[in-house]
Amino acid sequence: MRYALRNLKRARRRSLYTFLAAFYPALILVIMFGLAAGEVQGMFESATKLETGHLQIRGGDELAGGALPLFELPDELVSRLEEDAAIQYWTVRLDLPALAAAGSRSYGVLVQGVEPEKIAEISPIPGLISQGRYITGPREAVIGEELARLLDLEVGDSLVLLSVHPEAGMGAGVAKVVGIFRAPQAEMGRTVIQVPLTTARRLVRQGDVVTSVVAFVRGVEGPWDAWKIERTAAELEKILPEGLVVKDFEELAPEVALYIRIARPVLTAFSAIFFVLGGLVVLNAFYLSVLERTRELGVIRALGASRRWIMRAILGEALVLSGCGAGLGGLLGAGLVVLVEGLGGLRMPGAYSEFLRAFGMEPILHLRVTPWEVLGSALAMAGVAVLSAWYPARKAARLDPVEAMRHVT
Amino acid sequence: MSPEPVLVAENLVKNYRTDSVETPALRGVDLEMAKGEFTAVAGPSGSGKSTLLHLLGGLDRPTSGEVFLEGKALSKLSPEELAKLRLSRIGFVFQAYNLIPVLTVLENVAFVLELRGVPREERERKAREILAELGVEKYARQLPHRLSGGEQQRVAVARAVVGAPAIVLADEPTANLDGENSRALIDLMRRLNGSRGTTFLFATHDSRLLDRVKRLLTLEDGRITADRRQ
């Protein structure tokens, strides 16, 4: 090992290149992990808080036209939800496909009957009101800015809601626009109208029905905690009355779940390019190093060093250099992630910001990286570097001593 | 009864092939060396001295014939077994010193013992002893490039004998030294031969050194043409 360590000082510039070849990929991968975690967490939060919750209890699968089955909430289920320590928060919703009309204009919408006093705790919509206020009482509605433009509505105007539900038939009602919200997604701004649960129930002329129980599971911070949701969903499924089903986030928002699932592997694969480049630099550095030391290695072999000893000496050099490089790269990457997060997150520029908005996210990424990701990145890069040095090390170990000692550099 | 020979070569033949041309380097060398001998192989350049030493030291394999070191046939050993044998039983001194430039003088001498797995304290003690015996202990912490050619070659001799090998093979050890340093080095090797009983076989083409050896082999055109004890 002493021989390996001393060799690091022999060609300092080459040692520096090898160090940097491990340093940069580890740094980049850790930052990528931070970005990926920030992005998927943003999507997850947006999708769960705006639409799906972590899980929902429904009256069955979707009916024709995308309507959800109506069901009455059994008392024992309410008790269970109240007592279940795994459930952090729950509310009910009555979602109805409807036609919203004002004057001579009409537009297809989704009326969401919500519990205003409960939903404000978790939904971002009360915080997105740009004009007026959030709903507080019956026959009130909040609509998106896009729908307000389409129907030429302002705060204080009334709109007619005409719902069509396969189980309840047609229903009509009038609601007063008390607030207009700026939806994170244009599609949502065009189609979602939130009204009090009682107002939605009038449209189906049934006093106690809902279409879903929306629940949030305690301790879930991002999609990496999906197992907690699955576990809670499985526990709930055991006690559900017949006819009711429980659906977790991945079933409720499969397209977002898919993106979340592939985001990290895609970014990791992208980072692999840097690993390959780093590996090539290490390969080149050690190949040249072995070439320059051919005579010396021949002498060492002649003195009686085994092939294993030569391999170990060269791979030891690679391990020390790449281990230090990758370790420091990983730590610096983690430091940057923590620093950026400490400063309030990373504000994304231009087109990427629009992309985030399309998923209902704020254009600020909250970076996050775990110690395991830092350790994994550093170990992976050090591993790639050692593998890259394997060929030159093997070549050195197989040198013919006599031939090698004749070598002239 | 004569002592058991340390090294035996039987009808050693070595041909080098370049393209389709085969060039003979050794044409059938027979040799027997007893423990404690101090022998020189003399001959002009190209006579096959280095080739002979490479074959005797298990660095190269003969085209035909056999080398026995302490009764062990080298042709039967794998490259790794040969390396192990070189490490434990053969000391080498090369023409161009060939010290490891990144290791200090002390570490260079102790290197062979390190390869053998000797604990640090013991190998450094042995290395210091031999360096003191050869008068270069004061350079123990220096890197080799700070030493003169003669001093470096003394260190190389120290490295060769520190592990108490069965034989030390030295290939033109004085080739890069002036006359005074050459004689001093051979005298030093002779002293080690006397004090430690180390068996030496060295190749040289310097006729001024030949009166200092106990046995002189003359190699010409790949054959031993004279074997003289003096």
Jot down its keywords:
heterodimer; A: 409 residues; alpha+beta; Cathepsin D, subunit A, domain 1; 2 domains; 6-stranded mixed barrel; two-stranded antiparallel ribbon; 15 helices; 14 strands; 20% strand; elongated; B: 230 residues; alpha/beta; Rossmann fold; 6-stranded mixed sheet; 4-stranded antiparallel sheet; 30% strand
Write the layout of secondary structure elements.
The complex is a heterodimer of chains A (409) and B (230).
Chain A: H1 2-10, H2 12-52, E1 55-58, E2 71-72, H3 75-83, E3 87-102, E4 105-114, H4 116-119, E5 129-132, E6 140-144, H5 145-151, E7 158-165, E8 169-181, H6 186-191, E9 192-196, H7 197-204, E10 209-210, E11 212-217, H8 226-239, E12 245-248, H9 249-252, H10 254-292, H11 294-303, H12 307-342, E13 346-347, H13 350-358, E14 364-365, H14 371-397, H15 401-406
Parallel strand pairs in A: 4-9, 6-8
Antiparallel strand pairs in A: 1-11, 1-12, 2-10, 3-4, 3-7, 3-11, 5-8, 6-9, 7-8, 13-14
Helix pairs in contact in A: 1-12, 2-10, 2-12, 2-14, 10-14, 12-14
Chain B: E1 5-18, E2 21-34, E3 38-42, H1 49-56, E4 64-69, E5 72-73, H2 79-89, E6 90-93, H3 105-116, H4 120-133, H5 149-161, E7 167-171, H6 179-196, E8 200-204, E9 215-220, E10 223-229
Parallel strand pairs in B: 3-8, 3-9, 6-7, 7-8
Antiparallel strand pairs in B: 1-2, 1-4, 4-5, 9-10
Helix pairs in contact in B: 3-4, 3-5, 5-6
Structure overview:
The complex is a heterodimer of chains A (409) and B (230). Chain A is α+β, with helices and mostly antiparallel strands and 409 residues long. Chain A has helices at residues 2-10, 12-52, 75-83, 116-119, 145-151, 186-191, 197-204, 226-239, 249-252, 254-292, 294-303, 307-342, 350-358, 371-397, 401-406, and strands at 55-58, 71-72, 87-102, 105-114, 129-132, 140-144, 158-165, 169-181, 192-196, 209-210, 212-217, 245-248, 346-347, 364-365. Chain A contains 15 helices and 14 strands. In chain A, the strands form 3 sheets. In chain A, strands 3-4-9-6-8-7 form a 6-stranded mixed barrel. Chain A folds into 2 domains: 2-46 and 258-406, no CATH class; 58-69 and 88-211, Cathepsin D, subunit A, domain 1, CATH 2.40.70. Chain A starts with a helix and ends with a helix. Chain B has one domain (5-229): P-loop containing nucleotide triphosphate hydrolases (Rossmann fold). With 230 residues, chain B is of the alpha/beta class. Chain B is globular, with a radius of gyration of 17 Å. In chain B, 48% of the residues are buried. In chain B, strands 6-7-8-3-9-10 form a 6-stranded mixed β-sheet. A 4-stranded antiparallel β-sheet of chain B has the order 2-1-4-5, covered by helices on one side. Chain B has helices at 49-56, 79-89, 105-116, 120-133, 149-161, 179-196, and strands at residues 5-18, 21-34, 38-42, 64-69, 72-73, 90-93, 167-171, 200-204, 215-220, 223-229.
